[in-house]
Amino acid sequence: MATGYYLQDNPNPHAAQFGWPRTRVSGVIGVHTAENNTCFNGPDNGDLSVGEFVTGRRDFGSYHSAADVDSWRRWVHPGYSAWADTTNNAHAMSVSATVRANDWLALKEDRRRAVVVNLAEAAADLALVAVRDGLLDRVPPAQRISKAEAIAGTRMGFYGHGETNPGTRYDPGKDFDWTLFLNSYNTFVGGGIVPVGTITPERPLLIPGVAGLYI
To answer: I want to staple 73 with a disulfide (CB 3.0 to 4.6 A). Which of 47, 145, 189, 204 is the partner?
Structure first.
């Protein structure tokens, strides 16, 4: 039976890209870029094409959700670990934009905004599902946290991958719009809708009339 989570429904036969049911989710959410080829024009299927790459790769690297210009996609349920950051895979959640971290300002403004807002919706979905399924008692606030807090899981909030792995990682990049991301996330977890891009079957909608819950 399909779970609705791409990597769980399409398991990698070479290197499992998620692991073990976990009872502790810290409310730490890492923000990443997938470092695939950025789509600068036309329809963007990055969340699917990167997912297809992950289902066949022979090393480890995955996220809980991924977002592109047009949509976002659930990859791994927050009750399982994904292989996004070696410092905190056991307790953290992760979202990734399917762009290169150095390409934010090379994207047209409307496309750049769409990716960031879709990424924020993916993060809100993770948080709301974690609360719904008893992994968290409240949604993480729209705030940045320190490297130490991100690694230890002692405070809920968001960090960039490059902050926990300086020297080897730099995503989501110096030009990532944290203000737009956090404001959009805050709107989504409050039950609001930030209209952007095209609604697709891979981009779940808020359930009307049910505060903050997703299908």
So the answer is: 47
